[in-house]
Amino acid sequence: MAIRFADDAEAPNNRGSVLPVLWSAWKWTGDEKYLAPFRDDGARALDSIPSNALDELNLRATWGNELVTAIKSGAGNQSSRTNGDAPNSQRLNTPPPPNFGGLHFAWQTTGNTQFLETLYAGQIETSALRDYMNKEGSMWIDRVDVPNGELQRARLGGVALVRGSLYPGHAVSWTFAAPATDEDVAILIPESTPQSLKVIAYNLSSAPVTANLIPWNLDPGQWEVTQGTSANSQEFTTAAAETKRVELERDRPLSITLAPGVNTIVTLKLISKGTPYWNRPDLGIGKDDVVIQERKITVTVHSLGAIDAGGDQTGIDGR
Predict the structure, then answer these.
(1) Residue 119's beta-bridge partner residues?
(2) Model confidence over 117-152: pLDDT tens digits?
(3) Which of 141, 170, 228, 284 shows the smallest number of beta carbons within 10 Å?
(4) What CATH number does the domain located at 172-277 have?
(5) What is the pLDDT of residue 166?
């Protein structure tokens, strides 16, 4: 809720949502009480959760199918924003006009990319209509209003950053070896949890592309990685699919070679957990921590992690 300064009365909150904070509290503690507001909202809550809650909470058979049914029935075409929803909000009503978030989750539930075609066509049209407002006629000095939450969900497996969302939910990020760029590869991530991931990638260029998958909300540890090609973007269709085991964490990205002109499918499954990031030492050195006086260098090292960093790791006492 918001407070109206004129008379201290409660009013609907149209300046973002605290729901991502509750999601982070559940992620950190596992306490089901923090999920109660999402369950009260039903399927409309999916778009307010930065992570892929459809899989993390096992909701495909319930909320996922509800959204598919509502969209196919055309219910979303008669929906209007509820009181308190900001005109530029990315929150999902059930289903919201023009069904942006709902269409993404409908694709995840069914695998039917026509939902994505409709979604992106609508977002392109919306961006075109707002072209003047986002340029010469801008109402703000700090941002433009371009929908991108669903693109992040499709390409990163969750939302890394949108205005008002305080908890990063993306499963992965990407870098591409030159001369390739991010525009050379189309990526869809239909499934993602901290213990599993599925990537569908299409190399649009005429040469192989080396893509580096950097895990963020994937548990560190030993992972089984299977890679192959597909004709229908859904399942492996070649007997040449290869499986290997890798050590995967944020400073050890997974390198993937994508052949040109074909769908490459990569599935990842956690085999054994490593040490959680929050149970590790974490040393930090800032610009002001390095002092040079004549021929002497003094460095202040900060221990930011949950446990002591011993001298065997750093060459110094890292407490």
Answers:
(1) none
(2) 999 998 898 889 888 988 888 877 777 778 889 999
(3) 141
(4) 2.60.40.1180
(5) 81
How far is residue 228's CA from residue 234's CA, in Å, rounded to a whole number? 11
Question: DSSP secondary structure string, 59-94?
Answer: -IIIIIHHHHHHHHHTGGGG--PPTT--TT-----S
User: DSSP states of 301-318 as a string?
Assistant: -EE-SSS---HHHHSS--
Using 50 as the pLDDT threshold, list the residues of the chain that sit under it.
77-99, 313-319
Q: Any idea which residue has 């580096």 for tokens?
A: 212
User: pTM higher than 0.70, yes or no?
Assistant: yes
pLDDT, tens only, 51-89: 999 999 999 999 999 999 999 887 654 343 343 443 333
The amino acid that residue 263 corresponds to is N
Residue type, 243: T
Task: Locate 141 and state its tokens.
Answer: 């000095």
Q: Is 117 left (phi over 0), alpha (psi -120 to 50) or beta?
A: alpha
Sketch the domain layout of the chain as residue ranges: 2-155, 172-277, 280-314
Inter-residue contact 200 to 233 (CB < 8 Å): yes
> Considering only CA atoms, which of 107, 215, 219, 108 is closest in space to residue 171?
215
Cα 215 from Cα 15, distance rounded (Å): 31
